[in-house]
Amino acid sequence: MQKVSATHVVFRVETMLYYWHIMSKQLLEKVKKTMGNVDISVIIPVYNREMYISKCLDSILSQKNVSMEIIITDDGSTDSTLDICKKYADLNPNIRVIHQENKGLATSRNNALNTVCGDFVTFIDSDDWITEGAFESMLKAIKENNVDAVIGGFDRVREDGRLMERNAIPDDYKNQIVSEEMFWELNSRKKSNYLFTVVWGKLFRQEIWKELRFGEGIRFAEDEYVLPDLVKECKAFFLLDQIVYNQTYSQGSLSRSEFDGNKLGSPESKLKTCKYLIEKGLHEYAVEKWGIAVGEVILMTKLVNDDETKKKVKALGKEAAKLGKSLAKYMDTKKKCKFLAFYIWYPIFRLIKTGR
């Protein structure tokens, strides 16, 4: 048998990757020619949402005075979700369905981003729906105000459509253009934190996502993990005084499922944001983000039950202590006490709980 050198193997792999890159670009150009110019690329990742996906798609298709393409990435659904999506695609030429093995929300969105044709991009979760006239309002706002992103309010609703909670743009910022620093100020507010963390309910210029992608392998808090990089790309945001999105509080939501190692993505993403804010000199907001991350690290230390997750918790605890030490001089007395308690007692607490 002829021996194959390592150099030859590397050459073959690099050649395959090169041709795959060329084929991907050709495929994208073919899609763009087929679709033509559209205003908005709507990205919908979906996994086992046969009860919700039709309402989601109907709300999008009913939007008026906006041209769009709808890119659905089916993440290996095992129910009838994929069949439903294919039927919609058969009836609507502006719908494309991408099917993949189950790889998570981040990969699903990334695969869709690789094929977008629109001048603007928006994200929708498959069990949610869009308010009537939302796309037209957001498109008008982003063009007239010459900003990189428009942020609208959202309603959290029960599965039967009953309103649970309204998350509107804060009164002192309605219909205003805000800078990055103002964005982080709103993100640090308890009442508006979630609104200024998630990527859905917003409209972005397509150029923002030209190189930017969600963190592959991140299976929880995917939006917050990409947030520092996303905000860095946006020079200005317009805060639209309109409810544009409806978030369904469904039973199958990952955020309300039992603990597993994927949920460490939440404190990990907050610590990533904390580091970014320190680099930007926004220490006040970094302290707030650090405090939330520490609370999550402590909570998850109580819940971990396998060796691999225990290692990750230990690493996050060390990272939190390191960041807290650099932020201590910016903390008030109450937060300094919290930091000292964490810095001194957390290693002992973790050792008792996890044996590490």
Plain-language structure description:
The chain is an alpha/beta fold. The protein has helices at 6-35, 53-61, 81-91, 105-113, 134-144, 180-188, 222-233, 265-279, 283-303, 307-327, 333-354; strands at residues 38-46, 68-75, 95-100, 118-123, 129-130, 149-158, 163-167, 176-178, 202-205, 237-249. Helix 10 (307-327) runs antiparallel to helix 11. The termini are far apart.
CATH-assigned fold name of the largest domain? Spore Coat Polysaccharide Biosynthesis Protein SpsA, Chain A
Strand content: 15-25%
Using the CA coordinates, give the radius of gyration: 22 Å
Kindly give the count of domains.
Answer: 2
Helical residues, percent: 40-55%
Uncertain spans, ≥5 residues at pLDDT below 50? Answer: 17-25
Give a short overview.
By secondary structure, the chain is α/β, with parallel strands linked by helices.
Short key terms for the protein model shown above:
single chain, 356 residues, alpha/beta, Spore Coat Polysaccharide Biosynthesis Protein SpsA, Chain A, 2 domains, ten-stranded mixed sheet, 11 helices, 19% strand
Give the topology, please.
Blueprint: H1 6-35, E1 38-46, H2 53-61, E2 68-75, H3 81-91, E3 95-100, H4 105-113, E4 118-123, E5 129-130, H5 134-144, E6 149-158, E7 163-167, E8 176-178, H6 180-188, E9 202-205, H7 222-233, E10 237-249, H8 265-279, H9 283-303, H10 307-327, H11 333-354
Parallel strand pairs: 1-2, 1-4, 2-3, 6-10
Antiparallel strand pairs: 4-9, 5-10, 6-7, 6-9, 8-10
Helix pairs in contact: 7-8, 8-9, 8-10, 9-10, 9-11, 10-11
